[in-house]
Amino acid sequence: MKTSAPQVAIVGAGIVGLAHAWAAARAGCRVTVFERSDKARGASVRNFGMCWPIGQASEHFETALRSRELWQEFTAATGAYARATGSVHVVAHEDEAAVLEEFVMAMKGTPYQVSMLTPARVESDVPGVRRGVARAGMLSGSEINLDPREALALLPPFLKERHGVEFRWKTAVCHVGEGVLRTASGESHAFDEAYVCSGHDFETLFPEVFAASPLKPCKLQMMRTVPQPGGWKLGPMLASGLTLRQYSSFHGCPSLAAVKARVAREMPELDRYGIHVMASQDRFGSIVLGDSHEYGGDIEIFDKMEIDELMLRELRKLFDFPDWRIAERWHGIYAKHFGDVEFRADVLPGVQIATGTSGSGMTMSFGLADRHFSTRIAPV
């Protein structure tokens, strides 16, 4: 009988990889994380910083709430930036208001913490909303505002100090076989289980699996304003009616078809670039704005000013911040799974690919990894 702790190798130190490292360590494993860069530089640090359970369909909502619990545990232990702000969807059209009403009614008696807001309540209770435009709002109490850059910087030392997780930075893994992986420097490392959590880049290690998978790379563009003056606070994180098209939680609402048809008819440019607009605030007081979605062969290495201008156009229709000056612009690329909340593939005995959280990595990774290790490896 094997009595020593299982050796677990994690390839990739983005949020999915770190979530698996934490869950494996809590399950009693000895964990080593291999990361080709000196720190996380990919999609995990290029997002809104939203733990966003409201976007998840009911079958995944409990997993999102488990992620929320783990974020709260981590931020309490490290002092990382976290605000339990909740969120408000602000809508300017009757068809969008109908979707919100249908959703709130359907969620009665479920774990979703949602309620309708009148236009007057939106204007009185939600900073950053333009006066006179809201037809309705929906308040959700489950969302947490995080700073992804800070969180991804603090997670590795937290895992090392609290759980003994080892990190091999600037170490590119060039081969993963059964029970052993090899790095670009020629070193070999033995393992009992390995998890390839390198986003869409797992194509490098397992190109045939990527080619046969339902995944496509997705590029998003985002912006960040200068810090808002005088300590101005955004309050709850904000989403517009366009966001109803994006998240699976709203897909069962009968009125959503009318919203999609109107946007396609009146603003086809938004569908062309997958634009829906949201806003969160970082720990320095800047407002993070976005985003867009371009897939597969439509992705270009150069960012499009047209996309930024369209996002700002739609943001300004609903929101009104003290200072709109843009301090940063960037893009990120992640693996999009069009059929599920994640992609897992057992590619060899003891080797699994884990990716495809589809832009919901901050929301789902902790919960998904926790669920996986609670069933795969018993604590020792």
Automatic annotation (TrEMBL):
UniProt domain FAD dependent oxidoreductase: residue ranges: 8-369
Cross-referenced InterPro entries: FAD-dep_OxRdtase, FAD-dependent_OxRdtase_HpnW, FAD/NAD-bd_sf
Organism superkingdom: Bacteria
Similarity annotation: Belongs to the DadA oxidoreductase family.
Organism: Luteolibacter rhizosphaerae
Protein name: TIGR03364 family FAD-dependent oxidoreductase
Keyword flag Oxidoreductase: yes
UniProt cross-references to Pfam families, sorted A to Z: DAO (PF01266)
Cofactor(s) required, per the database record: FAD
Keywords: Flavoprotein, Oxidoreductase
